[in-house]
Design brief:
The complex is a heterodimer. By secondary structure, chain A is an alpha+beta fold. Chain A contains 7 helices and 10 strands. The N terminus of chain A is likely disordered. Chain B is an all-alpha fold. The relative contact order of chain B is 0.15. The mean pLDDT of chain B is 85. The chains are: A alpha+beta, B mainly alpha.
Chain lengths: 245, 50
């Protein structure tokens, strides 16, 4: 079943609570590799969530300012001052003397910072405009396809989200743990022929959010099977999850 | 919990083991800690720098 509403609301998605659960640890860099990939899978499918992650990231970045400041040791201070006063630095000072006369002592540095800030803000502004246009494009082209589970994956809930430009993300909940020595493998079906599209293992609680490898453009369906660790060039077991694109 | 994650680079699972706390508690404290930093900035009329 396909849900082509451009406004498919991530707030009401069943994985939203899990996403919120991981958000703090993600911005602190405290997720393990699998969880980090899973989290980035949600972000790839729903890029509009990036803004709230960035906002929380700004809060986490304040921690960098938290450590108490310490005065340098006398030796470090002496070394620093010596390197600043090194005669090798004399010639650049001569070159900038005429500018220094115009801007006054210290003014040159302030002027340089202002120029850099203006250039930086202009670039940032342009980049934000591009991001907004990209996001609008992504939201307009997103399509969600509900996964159907069978066999041991009968109770799995999930979907494949096509986010445009041939990119798709498979998201599933309640996946059974993989047996020892096996992994889940995703397949993109084209004209009935399966193409390997990536391996994954569910996180704690059986959640997964994984971008498919290879373009989903012109693919007819996505399927998931259990394969031996390392994956297979073609499926060797029954299809556990599938959806038509 | 924030210190162990941000400065020491432990994952939330490692922090839970280290402090002998349930994983859910560690996640909750991370959320609460970040929320408190944000509230501090909000109540003191400052904006969180981006």
């Amino acid at each position: 079943m396909s849900d082509e509403r451009p406004g498919h609301d991530p707030e009401r998605e069943p994985w939203r609570e899990h996403f919120d659960d991981l958000k703090g640890a993600y911005v602190l860099g405290a997720l393990d590799e699998g969880e980090r990939r899973e989290f980035e899978g949600y972000l790839a499918a729903y890029p509009e969530l990036q803004a709230e992650v960035d906002e929380l990231g700004s809060v986490a970045d304040l921690l960098a300012l938290a450590p108490q400041e310490h005065a340098p040791s006398p030796e470090l201070r002496r070394n620093l001052l010596e390197s600043i006063e090194d005669p090798a630095n004399a010639s650049p000072q001569r070159r900038t003397r005429s500018y220094a006369r115009i801007f006054g002592p210290g003014g040159l540095a302030v002027a340089a910072v202002v120029v850099l800030a203006i250039v930086g803000l202009s670039l940032w502004n342009a980049s934000l405009r591009d991001d907004n246009e990209d996001l609008r494009g992504t939201l307009a082209t997103r399509e969600t396809h509900e996964l159907q589970g069978s066999g041991p994956a009968e109770d799995v809930r999930g979907e494949v989200v096509e986010v445009g430009d041939g990119r798709a993300v498979l998201m599933a909940e309640n996946l059974p743990p993989t047996p020892e020595g096996e992994v889940y493998e995703t397949w993109l079906m084209r004209g009935g022929v399966p193409e390997p599209a990536g391996l994954f293992e569910p996180g704690d609680g059986g959640d997964a959010a994984v971008p498919t490898e290879g373009s989903s453009d012109d693919a007819d369906a996505v399927a998931v099977t259990l394969e031996l660790s390392g994956g297979s060039p073609a499926p060797t077991s029954d299809i556990l999850l599938t959806t038509s694109l | 919990v924030l210190e162990l994650a941000y400065y020491s680079g432990y994952t939330h699972t490692e922090i839970a083991e280290l402090l002998d706390l349930p994983l859910g508690t560690v996640k909750g404290r991370m959320r609460l800690g970040l929320q408190k930093i944000r509230e501090y900035f909000d109540t003191s009329g400052r904006e969180v720098p981006r």
